[in-house]
Known about the structure:
- The chain has 271 residues and is mostly beta strands.
- It has one domain.
- Helices cover 1% and strands 52% of the residues.
- The chain has a 13-stranded antiparallel sheet, with no helix packed on it.
- The longest helix is centred in the N-terminal third of the chain and has 4 residues.
Amino acid sequence: MSSHIGDRASLYISTSGDDLSDFNPSLGDDAISEFGAENPIHSLVEDVGLQLNYELIDELSISLGYFSGDAGNPEPGAGLFNGNQSAFVQLEFEPSDREASPQENHFLLGLTYIHTYNDSSLETETGSFRSQINLERPVVGNSYGVSASFAPNPRTVIGGWAGFTNATVIDLGDASVWNYALTLAFPDLGQEGNLLGIVIGQEPRLTGTSGFRIDDRRSDPDTSLHIEIFYRDRLSDYISVTPGLVWITAPNHDNSNPDILVFTVRTIFEF
């Protein structure tokens, strides 16, 4: 639910925690994996809360939000302002007019900061087991993300992101988690409404700890790559079919694990 406040501000009430900008306008809704859609640090935001968007100038906007994972829980240590919670700030810089010249010389830059408290882990939903810092202890996270997208012409969009989380495990120590991705999109390839998308990146990886180990290690042993390709075929105004392939090398950031290949076909009906 949203409400406009004047010409430049809007207030959102969310029950899903998915209202952050993904800064991935060409692939976000079409990617076939959670990782391919947006920076995984965005998944750290909890479920229920408020978000205020304000347009500082035509090219620059800011978003502020507070979310709780236990808003409906009346137990001690839970509720809207206790228990699992997150707060974030996003800055979006968009110097070109997307509506006046769609996907041509269009540039978008996004910066994200997220502060989280979770009673047991990080919960980015993607990445290695160690990167979730699941030690059944409270974890305070400070996450930073930068994303960019540029369309040199209407048929090509280049983008990507990087994300870093410093996680403090209460009474144990700190941990560092990194992720990154490069994205390519080719709109209207074959016919208007079609899209070829490519994502190459590293899902969240534990790069170091101080004061503790996870599974007897201070970091993930190796580096895995997430390689994703999909093609949305717009069959009609109401139906699209998207075949796709995801290839994960060294799953769980461990070279001893065999690669994973996942083939999928998604059909969307819009009425």
